[in-house]
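Bit of a strange request maybe. I'm writing a small parser for structure token strings and I need a real example to test against, not something I typed by hand. Could someone generate the tokens for this chain?
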Amino acid sequence: MMTFQKKKLFLSYITAAFLSVSVLMQASFPVLAAPEDKAQNSFQQAADERLLLPVQTNDLPSWPKGPAVTAQSAILMEAETGTILYAKNIHEELYPASTTKMLTCLIAAEQCALNETVHFSYEAVSAVPTDGSNMGMDAGEYLTLEECLYGIMVASANEVANAVAEHVAGSLEDFAEMMNDRAAELGCRNTHFTNANGLFDEDHYTSAYDLALIANAYFQNDVLRRIGNTATYHFVPSEGQPDDFYKTNKHDLINGTYSYEGIIGGKTGYTDDARQTLITGCEQAGMRLICVVMKEESPAQFTDTRILFDYGYQNFTKANIADHDKRHIISNSSFFYTGSDIFGDSSPILSIAPDGYVVLPNMSDFAGLTSKIDYEAGELKENEIAEITYYYYGTPVGSGRIVFSSRNILAYSFDSDEEPVSGRPDNVIFINIKMLVLIISGLTVVTVSFLILHSVFSGRPDYKHERQRKKQLRRDKRIRKKERRFAKRRWRR
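Reply from user aminoacidic:
Good idea to test on real output. This should exercise your parser:
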């Protein structure tokens, strides 16, 4: 019989032989990668290629150089002026995924009250895939519109977006038309929506620039801004739905996964075709920036957004136009001055509206800007006479309005019977200069014509003879009149 030591030695030989054969087999045959690893490698390779795509704003003269990001398209926009601080393929048509829902919520808030009841139809619930984002609403249940907005923005619930669309427009198709109309009103140029939730459709696309415009309108609504910046929302049981549950926002700059000062809200989006998309708003030192990144791989959509916000706040400053531009201010004393203002007031007749701003690169100053005045701007208000746009080496950086002084004045027109226009200083009378010039020109033509005719006729011989004859007749008439008076006096005597 084999002793214990021999058995142990024999097993060691067998184990060593087995390991040697395994090593040889691994060396002889390649190891096949899992499908998930292949896909991940493919996505990473695509991201590396996108990192090399050009950034258009880096080609602007004297503009701060922006960072490279792995997004296919990215934009950083200053909200109040619309100045584009960073641009990478911002007009390329891409799939927005659930960032679509910001426009859905904007339209709903504009069209409906928060306490309206939204019912969930079978179509609204069944029209979305079960593996997509949802919060488990069933046909026949109902919520308030405010709860629905939280469901859309926090839970990114597709069935809730559908229910809201039906509530607002009557059908999903009609709501898609409303979305396209509203997007066009906001200035979107490369957008076409087919649904309210952003589920993939080849005809459902937009651009980073257009999403920034939509987000800008969204963030101007205080209620929507609060809802869109909610990290977690508690849905309590009600007559409309029986469940008690919480939903956490997937936006990592909102839910605290990544910290950044001044975040005011945003929306995530993902489909296999769209990849990761993200909209984020941030406000620091009175400057609100909107960042949109499209077609990225997680978690780069969050890290790149922080990088772009850093770029914006570290390289640009917002400046009030009225505090810096004195070239377009005209005061009373500029026209009438006798040692003291004869109107008793030296306030400006023309000035820059106080709500105009520009965004300047930190290395520049206001004096280096050029400007262009447009007297035909389509949205001028009653007391505004022109729009003035400012440029930094040819790049638009903001605009303002040239206005009449805010005090009441009387405005008169020679060709109008309307009442004086209020809202301008009461110490100034504005006249329709065009009509005044026409009247003066007409009087001048009449006067000159009279003088020419008089000169022509006064030089003719028969004209002189006629004048002498008329003078003689008037003289004879006066003599006869005197003789009759003299004869009457003698007769009375």
